[in-house]
Protein 1
Amino acid sequence: MPLLELRAVSVGYGRNRVLQNVNLTLERGEIVTLLGANGAGKSTLAKSISGLMPAEAGAILLEGEPIETLPPAERLRRGIAHVPEGRQIFAGMTVAENLALGAYASPDADKSERLEFVWALFPILRDRMQDLAGNFSGGQQQMLAIARGLMSRPKILLLDEPSLGVAPLLVAEIFRLIVSLRAQGITILLAEQNARQALSIADRGYVFENGRITLSGASKDLLNSPDVAERYLGMGSATEVSGAASAALAGRLRGVLFPDAAPAGGAST
C-alpha cells in the first residue's frame, strides 16, 4: 500500500481547473519530485495534499485512508507537513515562535526533543532563537521554513521550490539535507523547477504540463531525457510580504500561541 495516493484528483480556482485527473503515488522512504514550468500545477498539487486547497474531484489517501475532506490541521496531525513556495516564514516573529507554530497542531506538548532534532540539522537556529526571522537571509529563512515543517514529526514532507531565491552555495546544502531527511525515515514530495538537481536526488519523478501529468518514471530515465532537460529548467519568484502586514500577522499569531507573553523582538502587536 502506498503511503500517499492520489486518484483522479482535480483542483481549481473558481471555474478554472488547475489540476486535472492527477494520479500519483508516494511510497515510504521515497523522494519523488514534481517537475514543470511555472504555473504547471506543482504548487497547487502540494496545497491539495496539505489541505490548503480542496480537491474538486478524486480521492487523496494517506496509508489507505481518505483525507481529502479533512482540514489542514488534521492532515498535519496525521503526518503531512507542507513547506510552501516562497518560504512563508513569519518575519515579525522570532525563530522560536516560528518553530512553535510548526508544532502547534501536534498533541505532544513537549517540544524539546523536536527542537534538538532541528538544531542538529540547523545549528544556526539554536543560537538565534530570539532573533526576528525577518532579519535572516533568504537561505537562512528557507532553513527555518524546513525546520518549522519538521517540528511536527511528519511522515511526509511537502517541499515546494526549496531552492527558489537561495544562493547557489546554499542550494547544494539544501539538497544534501533533503537526502539526509530521507535517510531518517521522512518521505519527501519535492516540487522543483531545477529539474537536474531534483532528479539527481529523487527516486522517481512526475512531469506536469497545464495541470496534467504528461510523463513519469524513474529519475535516471527522466534525467537522461533531452526533452525534460530542455523544457523543464527555470526559475520562479518568491512571495514577499510587507513589513507592516508581517508585523500585524505576527501579533495575531503570537496572541494565539503565547497569550500571556509580552511582545518579542520589538515587533508590534
Protein 2
Amino acid sequence: MTAAHPRGRPHRAESQRTQQPRPAGPIRVGFGRIGRTIRQKMTLWSTRETTMRVVFQGEPGAYSEQALIEAMPGADSVPRPLLRDVFETLVREEADVAVVPCENSQAGTIHQTYDLLLEHAGRLHITGEHELRVRHCLLAPLGAATETIERAYSHPQALDQTAGWLRERGIQAVSYHDTAGAARWVAEAGDPTCGAVASSRAAEVYGLAVLAKGIEDNPTNRTRFLVVAHHAVPQAEVEGKTSLVFSTANRPGALHRALGCLAARDVNLLKLESRPMRGEGWEYVFYVDCVGWATEPALSSAIREVERETAWVRVLGAYPRSV
C-alpha cells in the first residue's frame, strides 16, 4: 500500500526570504566563556527552583536537541517548528538561550541562521559554539526492512547528506520540515514502505526500528551549532572567535581594503562568505569569522578601521573558539 504524503504533502523547508534591514552604525560588545556562564546561570536558577530553557528548531529527537543536550546537560528543551520561531521565542524571553545550526561540513552554510542573526544584531548575541558529529540512520516502523523502503522522509539537509546512500538503494528522497518530525510521521503512518532519515535517538523517542546506521555519505559529517543569548558576556582567558558582518560600498577594491584592515593587525580569518542583501538589488553583505575576542586591542582596533572602510559593521558575537 502506498502511503499518502504527511498531512497531504511533505512540508517544504522554511523559506530563506528573511528580511535583512540595513543596520545604522556599528555595535561593539564584550563576551565570555559560554560554559562558565551557563554553569553560573544554572546555579542561580537552581536556587530559584527553575531550569535553563533552551529553544531549538525541530521536534524531540532532532539533531538540534541532541546538540543542546551535549552542550547544556540538564536544561529544559523548548522545541519550535521553524528557525524564525526560535529567534522570536528568544526575543520574547520565552527561553533563556537558543541553539541553532549554522553550517555543516558537507552541505555548507545554513544561510537563514545568518540572516536571522543579522536581523537581530544588537538584541541577541552569539555566546558559544558546539560541534556535533551527525550520524544519520534509516528508521522505519517495526517489522520493516531496508528492501521494503520506497521513500525516505527528512529535512533537505539530511537528505543531501545521505543522497548517495539512498540513490544506491533506489529510495526516493522526500523533503520534510524536520528530521525528528519525519520520524514521528513515519511512526504514525506505520507504512513499511516509508522510512525516515534521522538520529538513533529519534528512533527511541518514536518507537521506530533502526534499519541502517551511519548512512551519511561523508564519514566525518559534522554540524556546527551556535549558542545565542540575550546578553553578551565578558572576555575569557581562552582563545576566542569573533563573528562579524559588514557591507561595503560598490566600488573597486572595497572588500580588499576592508579585509586589509584585519590583515594589517595580524587577525586570522577562519571564514569569509558573501550573502545578498535583502531589499537591495545586487548588493552584498560579508560574514567573517576570525580568531580573537572583539575586546582584544588588536582586533578591536581592526574593527574600528573596518568601520571606516565599510558602510556598516555588526559584531554578531565573540565566544570561546571550539571549532
Protein 3
Amino acid sequence: MEPDIIRSLLESVRAGEVSTDEALSRLRHLPFEKLGFATLDHHRSLRCGFPEVVFCPSKSVEQVRTIFGRLAAAGASVLATRATPEQAAAVREDYPQALYDPTARTVVLRRPDAPPAVGHVAIVAAGTSDLPVAEEARVTAETLGARVTTHYDVGVAGLHRLLAHTAELAQANAVVAVAGMEGALASVVGGLVAAPVIAVPTSVGYGASFGGLAALLTMLNSCASGVSVVNIDNGFAGGYIAAMINRQSCPGQARQKRTAAHKEHKEHKDHEGHKGRKGRRG
C-alpha cells in the first residue's frame, strides 16, 4: 500500500468520511498477506518506495494471475516481469487496462492517480539484439515514476552514433548502459557523463562471450569510476536502481507531483460520488 493512500485513508477517518471498522478492513493485510503458495509483502512500498514486483518465471498462469490481482487490490501500481503471453493474457482478462509489452516481457497496471514522470533516466543499448533487456529497464524505470529517454543501437562499433547523444545523456540523473558481446559500451558512457552509470551485461554474443560472462567481466573491470554493474540480462535491476537514483535527485518534485495527482484523483471521485447522490435524490 502506497504512503499517500494510507495518509488519505487516515485523513478520511479523521474527517468522519470513513469509519474505523472500514479503515481497519482496508489495512487488514498489512504488512503481508498469505496465499499458501506466496506471502505478499504489502508493506514494501512504505519501506522501499515501490510495491513488490511479480517475477513470473516458474510460476503457473493462475499463480501470476492471483498474485497480480491481490497486489492490485491493495491500490498500488503493479509490475510483472518476464511474463509469457499466456500469463499476460490471464492478467488482462481481469485487468484489461493492464499493458503487456512483448519485447520487455512486462505487464504493468498503473494506478489511476499515478503522478506524472519526473527527472530523467537515459537507457542506452549497444545493439538491437539487446532490446529485450533494455526495454525491461525502460518499463521498470517508467513504472517507478521516472521520465525515460532511450538511445538504441549506439554500440562502440560505430562510436559516432553514441557521441551524437552526449548532450542529452549529460542531462540524465542516471544512465543504464545495456550491452552484450565484449560489453565496452558501459565504460565509454561512464567516461562521457557525470551521472551514475548502471551497466547491464546481456547474453548476446558468440561462443566465447560465454552467455554474457565476457560482457560482465568487462563491465566489472571498467576503468570509468562511475560505473556499477548488475547481473547478466537483469534489465529490471538496472531500471530499478536508475529510478531510485532519479528519485533521490528530485525528491521535492516527485513528492509534490505524487500529492497533486492523488488529490486530483480524490477530488474527481468525490465529484462523481456527489453527482451520483444528487441523481438518486431526483
Protein 4
Amino acid sequence: MVRWPYLVVLLVGATLPPIVPAQIVSPQRERNALNKGVAVPKRAWGPEQAIGEPDTPLAGDIQTAWASLTEDGQKEWLELIYEKAVIPVCVEIHETYRPGAVFKIAVFDREGVESIVWEGQDPTAAGQTRGVSKIKLRTDIVTDRIRIYLDSPKVPGWNEIDAVGLIGQDADRQWAVGVKASSTYAREIPPQVDQPQMDPFDGVFVGDSELMAKREQQLAALVKQLRQRDEQLRAAQERVDELERENETLKQKLKDR
C-alpha cells in the first residue's frame, strides 16, 4: 500500500508503516450529528468508513474503506452497532481489498455478553479482488452490535472492509450507525463538543507531536535507503562503462588482426 509520502515510497519500492492506533466513532456521536443534519468526519481508512451503505465503487486500496494499522501484524476485528436490535440471520460484509480474512463473527446481547455465532472460511476467497461475503447466522440472541474477526496474517496485505449489512428475521437490511476497530490506519480526529463524556467506545490515541516525530524518523530511514540505492546505481553504471570500454578494446584488437 503506497500512501505517505507517495514519491519517496514509490522510488524505493517500500511502504511506509502507519502510526495511529484505533480510534472510535461512537453511535451516539453519529446519531447526534444526523439529528443536527451534519456529517461525521470520515478519515481515510478510518473505521468510520464502515458506517452506512457501501460507498467504495471499485476494488483496491481505496480510502473509503476501513484498513487496520498494519498489513499483517496481528488478527484484527471490526465492531459495528446498528439502530435497531434484531435476531440476526445474516451479515453481508463488503470486502473491497485483499478479501478472504474473515473467520469469526460474534454478537453482543443487551448486557454486553459476547457470543460466537459463526466460525469458518470466508465465503469470499483470498485472491479475489473484492466480494460480498454473505454469512448466515444461527442464534436467538437479540442484538444491535456485532463483531467481525479477521485473520489478517493469513491473507497478506490490508484486508479492507467498506460496509457490513445486518439482516434480521424481518428480512430488513440495516447499515451500521456506530463502529470501532482493533486498530486503524487513519489519523486522529479531534473530539466534538457533542461527544458524551462517558462514551462506551473509548480509544487510545497518539498525539500529533509523537506522530510527526515518528514520521520524521521513517522519512529519514527512507532517505537513507534512497542514498544507498543511488550508490548502488552509480556502482552499476561504472561497471557498465567499464565493460563497454573492454568491449571496444576487444573490437579494436580483432580489427587489427
